[in-house]
Amino acid sequence: MQGTVEDVDVPSVSDVLRRCRELVRPALVDAVGRLHPWTGEMAAYSLGWSDTAGTPEPGGSEGKGVRQALALLGAEAVGADAACGVPGAVAVELVHTFSLLHDDVMDADALRRRRPAVWKAYGTGPAVLAGDALLARAVTGLAETPGHHAAAAVRRLCDALNDLVAGQAEDLRFEHRPWDGPGAVGPEEYRSMAEGKTGALLGCALALGAVLGGAPEPTVAALDRAGRHLGLAFQAVDDILGIWGDPATTGKPVHADLHRGKKTHPVLAALAGGSRAARELGTLLASARPTDAAAERVASLVEEAGGRAATRGEARRHLDAARDALRATPLTRTAARELDVLFAGLADRVM
Ligand code: GRG
Predict the structure, then answer these.
(1) Distance in angstroms (rounded) separating the CA atoms of residues 87 and 150
(2) What is the whole-number distance in angstroms between the Cα of residue 9 and the centre of ligand 1?
(3) CA 244 → CA 63, 204, 251, 255, distances in Å?
(4) Which helix or strand (DSSP H or E) is residue 112 part of?
(5) Which residue's CA lies nearest to atom 4 of ligand 1?
(6) Coil/strand/helix, residue 56
(7) Which atom of ligand 1 is nearest to the CA of 106?
(8) What is the pLDDT of residues 164-214, one digit of tens each?
(9) Residue 178 near residue 184, CB atoms below 8 Å
(10) Which of 28, 68, 93, 117 is deepest in the core (most CB within 10 A)?
(11) All domains in the chain, ordered by first residue
(12) 177 in the Ramachandran plot: left (φ > 0), alpha (ψ -120 to 50) or beta?
């Protein structure tokens, strides 16, 4: 028997992301166009739309657009038109852009998506201001959403912003914590940090789409939960890419997290194993922040001590939990299938 249309017509991750990006683009362009021209220029650079001279530079350095896609799919999943999710999609994409911009300043990361980070290209003060402008525009745009869901949407975004700040605060403070002993970062502390800095916005994106689509609170809460688990899987994968990813693909230098003493999942999991490799790793990490050569050795010890495999397992568990949260919620079939494709593709980037 021939497969049904549903069997054969499964979109790819890039199909889903492209469709959503095209639907959101006009509103995103409009939002950036409302910024002061200088902050707007930096925002356009940051979004990968133009170079530092403001000359359009299509393609190349744009992000994947995961959060805007989640917001649209969140609206479609609760039976609303994708257009209902657009204000939420714009808000989360602007917040994401802002958070990357400020994160690069805080971490002194000079490269983002294969180009100089905004602070490198324009200076730290201007970059901070561009981030502030994006945040203000995100909240303003969402507050101006027509209809009667704007207040609930802004409330959800603000809750996510607070979680984002808390997650980032923990991430920065962990850099100064020891690798082992009583002051070491435990698995639950890592999880809370990662859920805040990465899961909160992914959960918020899905939830905002549902709020703007008029969904009841239990559905909104389930989508938020699914997005948070996706975020934890996504962050685990991001941690793996930070140690073993190809800079040509990630657009960032390899081992930056190791050099900064970031408490990433693979290293914490490796140290927790207690093997010979874990003990050597502990000694190496305790002696100093790794140089380039030492970082290579750290990476292989993390692998040998099982940190990479453990982190893959962590990503898999959170992907499963994210999918379970979706399946336990009544959602429209096409959007649920696209979400499933997106979830699997994002969590499988290195698996
Ligand atoms: C919200 C007021 C307020 C402050 C934010 C700076 C900060 C505080 C938080 C940083 C959060 C952060 C940068 C988390 C990392 C999340 C992450 C894994 C980003 C990479 O996302 P991708 O892969 O990026 O979707 P692309 O390049 O595809 O857009």
Answers:
(1) 9
(2) 32
(3) 20, 29, 13, 8
(4) strand 111-112
(5) 165
(6) strand
(7) 6
(8) 999 999 999 999 999 988 999 999 999 999 999 999 999 999 999 999 999
(9) yes
(10) 68
(11) 13-346 (1.10.600.10)
(12) beta
